[in-house]
Amino acid sequence: MSEAPEDIGEHAYDHIAQWYLEWVESDMSPRQRYTKKLLNKLPPSPSVLELRCGPGVPLLNMLVDRGTHVTANDISAKQIEMAKARCPHVKFVAGNMATLTFEAESFHSALSFYTLFRLPRSQLKDLLAKMYRWIKPGGLFVFNLAGIDEEEFHGEMIGFELLKVENVKAGDGKLEEDEPDYESEFVWVMARKPDANKGEISEGWSQHV
After folding, report:
1. Is 150 helix (H, G, I), strand (E, B) or coil?
2. Cβ contact 90:67 at 8 Å
3. What pLDDT sits at residue 102?
4. What is the rounded distance in angstroms from the CA atom of residue 111 to the CA atom of residue 53?
5. Which fold has domain 5-207?
6. What is the model's pTM?
7. Please, what is the end-to-end C-alpha distance for the chain in angstroms?
8. What is the mean pLDDT of residues 106-129?
9. Which distant-in-sequence residues (6+ apart) come within 8 Å of 180 by Cβ?
């Protein structure tokens, strides 16, 4: 019997867990900068969701150190095991992020780096719609995508009013020049869910710097 795609993904991420830990510990990616931007805009003791948390460093530690109540997801059981050892106060939810379910307005904010672009476009749209429901009014969603230009990106975000967008070459992070994704361009986004209680009437996301 052939494996389901999500099972293949889990096994693959289990296999590279140690390599990935070493990579993120030395990575100079913009995700730390964007996480700091997010933290500076959150209320006291906020609830935050991270999709595909990996081994827990550096972002979970950054969030926990600022007093956030973190729920973290990853498809890899091995990555979750490593993250639990480093961040015991985080609530972990294992599994495919495309099948997650939470109550509406469960989180003040959410973040997801280097993972959403792995979803088929139909699943990406569905997940973005879920994120909109899960985040509280006025909350933020910070994420990045690869292999998509800004015009195409806006076209994919049906129903969204967008966004702060920054294009960053993958090589500006940890990738070496001889790696195949070195010239890939990532779109980094910080989005805000409008707050109807403050008269912000919209069915999508608004620009937030």
Report:
1. helix
2. no
3. 98
4. 9
5. Rossmann fold (3.40.50)
6. 0.77
7. 49
8. 89
9. none
